[in-house]
Write a structure and sequence with these properties.
36% of the residues lie in helices and 16% in strands. The chain is an alpha/beta fold. α6 links the parallel β5 and β6.
C-alpha cells in the first residue's frame, strides 16, 4: 500500500441510541495506539481532535431520540469530512453509527467534486436502512444507509446532494435486520450479505466482486466498520451485541483485502463503547484491524495478550 496522509477525526457522538458510552470511543482509540500503529507502517498521521457540533433550532420529535443533536452532528461532520478528504485519508473515530449520517454526506460531496462515483462498504450486523419514520426504537444510528441511499423522510437533515445508488452499496456480515428494512431492501440492487451466506460461500467471493466493481468504475470507497460486525466473544465493547458475527480471522481478511485493493478512501470506526469493554481488548482489536487495512500483514502483526 502507498503511504498515506491519514487524518484522524474524533466524533464523540452518543445521541444515536440510548446506551451511553460511545462518546469515550475516540479517546479509547487514541489510548490504544492507533496513530502509532499507522505511523509504524510508514503513513503520516495527523490528529485533528474532536468535532464539536453547533446548536440548531430543530425541534424535538417524541418518536425520535435526540433528533436536534443528531442533526447538529450530521451538519458538523459533513463539513469536516469534506475538508478532511481534501487533505488526505480521513478516519472517523466514533461514536455511535449515527455519525455516518455526516461522514457519508461529506465524503459524497468530495466524490462529486472529484467527479468519481462513491461506493459504500457497510461492515455491520445491521443494515441501518431505516428512515426516521420506520424506526420503531427511535434510535437514529439505525438510519445512515437509508439516508445515504436517498430514502425519503429525512426532512430535518441536510439534503444528501448525491445519494449513493443501490448497486454501489455492499452490506457485509448481516444477522439482525428489522422487517421494515428487509421489505425496503427487497428488490433493490443493494448487496446484502448475511452471515449464512458467508458460512456457506466464504467472505472472499462477495467482497472480491464488490471491489472489482469499485475498481472498474474508478470509484472512491467509504468503509464503515461497526464493532458489532465482529462476534461479541472477541469484541464485547458494543451496545448492540449480536451473536454469530465475524471471527478475528475473517475480519482481518476483509481488512487485508481492502489494503491489497488500494481502493478505500475513507473509514468510519463506530460503536466502540469502552464502558462495556474488557481491559481494552475491543479497542486493541479495532486498532489491529485498522492496521491491517493500511498494510500490516499477518507476519508483521504483534501478538497481543489480554491477561
Amino acid at each position: 500500500m502507498t503511504d498515506k496522509n491519514i487524518v484522524l477525526v474524533g466524533a464523540p457522538m452518543d445521541c444515536g441510541k440510548r446506551t451511553a458510552g460511545c462518546l469515550m470511543g475516540p479517546d479509547a482509540y487514541r489510548t490504544a495506539g492507533l496513530a502509532a500503529a499507522l505511523g509504524d507502517l510508514g503513513h503520516s498521521v495527523t490528529d485533528h481532535g474532536n468535532v464539536t457540533p453547533r446548536a440548531n433550532d430543530v425541534a424535538e420529535v417524541d418518536a425520535l431520540y435526540r433528533l436536534p443533536e443528531t442533526v447538529a452532528w450530521t451538519t458538523a461532520l459533513a463539513a469536516k469530512a469534506e475538508a478532511a478528504m481534501a487533505e488526505g485519508f480521513p478516519i472517523f473515530l466514533g461514536g455511535d453509527h449515527a455519525l455516518s449520517l455526516g461522514t457519508t454526506l461529506g465524503v459524497a460531496r468530495a466524490a462529486a467534486t472529484a467527479d468519481r462515483p462513491l461506493f459504500i462498504l457497510w461492515l455491520d450486523a445491521h443494515t441501518d436502512y431505516h428512515t426516521p419514520l420506520t424506526t420503531d426504537s427511535g434510535n437514529l444510528h439505525g438510519t445512515p444507509v437509508g439516508y445515504l441511499a436517498g430514502r425519503p423522510d429525512f426532512a430535518e437533515f441536510p439534503v444528501f446532494d448525491h445519494p449513493v445508488p443501490p448497486q454501489r452499496i455492499c452490506m457485509l456480515g448481516l444477522r439482525s435486520v428489522d422487517p421494515a428494512e428487509r421489505d425496503a431492501l427487497h428488490g433493490t440492487a443493494v448487496r446484502s450479505i448475511d452471515m449464512r451466506a458467508i458460512d456457506e460461500d466464504g467472505i472472499v467471493k462477495p467482497l472480491s466482486g464488490f471491489l472489482a466493481d469499485v475498481a472498474a468504475a474508478n470509484g472512491m470507497l467509504h468503509v464503515s466498520l461497526d464493532v458489532d460486525f465482529l462476534d461479541p466473544s472477541v469484541a464485547p465493547a458494543v451496545g448492540t451485541t449480536v451473536p454469530g458475527g465475524a471471527t478475528v480471522r475473517e475480519a482481518h481478511l476483509v481488512m487485508e483485502m481492502l489494503s491489497d485493493s488500494g481502493l478505500m478512501t475513507s473509514l468510519d470506526l463506530v460503536e466502540l463503547n469502552p464502558f462495556l469493554d474488557d481491559r481494552g481488548r475491543t479497542a486493541q482489536l479495532m486498532v489491529e484491524l485498522t492496521a491491517s487495512a493500511f498494510g500490516r500483514k499477518v507476519f508483521d502483526r504483534p501478538t497481543r495478550a489480554f491477561a
